[in-house]
Amino acid sequence: MAEPGTFALRVPTGINGEISYGNEDTDTMDTITILGFVAGALTTVAYVPQVIRSWKLKETRDISLSMLVLYATGVFLWFVYGVWSDALPIIAANGISLVLILVLLGIKLRYR
């Protein structure tokens, strides 16, 4: 039975190469972890339309190069923080976001 405020969703945790969700004292994924995954998914998916548009039009004139560099740096630091904190929602969201930002940055530099 799950404790109040948690879902009874079983997740793999352990030391044998299994995924850790930062919830070492229980084998259920708690509400805050699920919230983290949802928030990460939404903020990551929000970048996809811009990447697709830029890729199709081969045009990024309205996107600031300095903004992309600063944003990529910040997202990379969040990714590192997630790794050090063993926080899978932060690792997943920022890892995928970083790839999208780097694609957009590549388009920006290629089609100046």
UniProtKB/TrEMBL annotation:
<dbReference type="GO" id="GO:0016020">
    <property type="term" value="C:membrane"/>
</dbReference>
<keyword id="KW-0472">Membrane</keyword>
<dbReference type="InterPro" id="IPR006603">
    <property type="entry name" value="PQ-loop_rpt"/>
</dbReference>
<dbReference type="Pfam" id="PF04193">
    <property type="entry name" value="PQ-loop"/>
</dbReference>
<keyword id="KW-1133">Transmembrane helix</keyword>
<dbReference type="InterPro" id="IPR047662">
    <property type="entry name" value="SemiSWEET"/>
</dbReference>
<dbReference type="GO" id="GO:0051119">
    <property type="term" value="F:sugar transmembrane transporter activity"/>
</dbReference>
<protein>
    <recommendedName>
        <fullName>MtN3 and saliva related transmembrane protein</fullName>
    </recommendedName>
</protein>
<keyword id="KW-0812">Transmembrane</keyword>
<feature type="transmembrane region" description="Helical">
    <location>
        <begin position="32"/>
        <end position="51"/>
    </location>
</feature>
<feature type="transmembrane region" description="Helical">
    <location>
        <begin position="63"/>
        <end position="81"/>
    </location>
</feature>
<feature type="transmembrane region" description="Helical">
    <location>
        <begin position="87"/>
        <end position="107"/>
    </location>
</feature>
